[in-house]
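pinned: reference chain
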Amino acid sequence: MHHSSDSQLVALVALADASEDFALDVTLTLPGGVICGNLIGYSTWLRKQAALLQPSGHSRYIDYLNKLADLVQENQKNSSVDPLNDPRYENDPTVPLCIHLADAFYVHPTVTIPANEDLLWRGRISEVSGWSTGVFKPQQTD
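pinned: its structure tokens
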């Protein structure tokens, strides 16, 4: 585990990665700003990426994403290390390095970006300087 990464966030991401149906709204503080979204596992993120690309007709890349999602899911099922209770986890190659969000948006004082579009986002856990459960949204002004 990167020592600069928050161990609680790493454990939460590991739980998301271990479950296809895990979802939790989070807000992340990064060097470039604040991003909010629904924390999902890596295999779920890969499948959502493949689904978004379906209309584009890039079948080779879509097949690759789906196969990778299957492999990631299988590796998670076969992992015998518990990220919450096992000190061996710090040396385990399955320790997540990236965090994955669905329905992501950047927070700005007056607007959220994108305003009305779904966005899949992936970033390095080690770049997160702070986080919370739930999402922030600017108040609508009339």
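why pinned: Residues 7-133 form one domain. Strands lie at 24-30, 33-40, 98-107, 112-113, 121-124, 130-133.
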